[in-house]
Design a protein that fits this description.
By secondary structure, this protein is mostly beta strands. The chain is 10% helix and 47% strand. Strand 6 and strand 7 form a beta hairpin. The longest helix is centred in the first third of the chain and has 9 residues.
Length: 217
Amino acid sequence: MKTRINFFLLTILIFAMTTFDKAYGQNQVVSIAVDKMNVLYIGIENPITIAVSGVSSDKIIASINHGTIKGENGKYIAKLTEVKNAIIEISVDGKIISKQEFRVKRIPDPIAHVNHYSGSVNIPKSELDKIENVVAEIKNFSFDVNIDVVNFNISTSNSKYLNNKDKQSENITDCTNAMKELFKTAMVGDEIFISDIKIKFPDGTTRILSGINITVI
């Protein structure tokens, strides 16, 4: 994983454009570097470094066509509002000296898991009573994203059905007492389905993730 992240860091996307500005009497190189990956992501803060040769950072004005970009001393944070290519525009003393286009993507789907088990899995009966919550994480992603699990359902092959909206725990990712009891009383050969896993991102958007299908062994 470190090798992969280092590869992205070593291949930072730098766009350069040379212009002639009479006010400064010199060619200027404009550098817009996406610090972590070679694309921008909607729903999170994207760090960007901007520099213009021969121009102090306090004279640089950056804008973006759909979203916001704020910062100082050459370090900026861009937040996108649409999943389509974004154009960052650089101005100095009221004059536009560069426009560069960047791809915009949505954050990859997280993976839901219980005690690091995900997808269709076999779980020993002795480990079921250790399951207390459902967690969602994004693997191999350069950004730290706080993801809340706001709802999920649990059903079994013998037709039991439970929804965690009825829980009294303050932690929304926790299983209800009834769910924990279901895990404790499950028998070898039973199937347990955790479905309709609803998550919420920091920007308030939600998604439904693929479920977890457990066979008790």
